[in-house]
Protein: Peptidase S1 domain-containing protein
Organism: Graphocephala atropunctata
Amino acid sequence: VGQGLRDDLCYIPEPLTNGLYSGHGRRCPTGDNSAACRLVPGVPVSAGWVLLYGCQPGYRLNTTRVASICLQRPGGARWLPPLPSCLETSYNSHFLPSKNICGKSSHHRTKRRVDGKISSSGEWPWMVIFGHSKTTNPRDGIHWFCAGSLITTRHIITAANCVAPHRRRPAVFLARLDDLNLDDSVQDGMQPIEITIDKNNIITYPGFQPDVVFTHNIALVKLKFDLRITNSVRPICLPTPDFTERSFTGETVYFASWGQTDDDHERNPKRKRRFEPVLHEISGRVVDQDVCSLNYKMYQT
């Protein structure tokens, strides 16, 4: 794929088996309904056109690359690096923690409803908070802004809109684990782990577009070293492929995070939101997929 009737053009390939292609946001801004941006197979595109790709759950790319670009080369234009394929993968890959390691909390959880309860040590051992500073001076302090979940001993999953801008802006960008209260003046016996993040180790999903916040809004952050698993630092389990066949409608789920807890903000928008530095948790029930899609139909994902 990549060569066509004209040597100076590339051509949109056939759909990626067990995966998907997407156009780069700069070439295909929101609302562009051209044949190229709709990825109609066989449509010609000029040199410089970028094609992003990813695989469906249960499959992985046969390359570490996530994009190809149409480049002029002797003999004609072509996609470089060559377009990928998606290979079937097993959940029990050496890359992911086994079921007897991941998702284990030191607290027994019941199905009772929880509303804004303060969490305890080891209750959510996969929780991570990201912070940044505009300078390297420790006196300037760290601004904590987004949470994530540890999914291996070296990888964190989070929202792309949280971490993508920090690949270029702050002087210091770090992840903090094994902590309950971000206020360092509070003596709670915790010994948090702080790891500086290499901005080159922030990997956003290929289809993420910053101007469409909730579309493909997912990212991976790779740490500099493997963490040691303890009762208070432990990865969460990723869903297995069979999860797509199950219905969780009506089941109780739990959320944990640091951040805004001020319910009065909606009643008084002029009032500044209060950032809560203590890890809290809350429970809720899963809504039917059709109901969810109807309420959030303006978003693609």
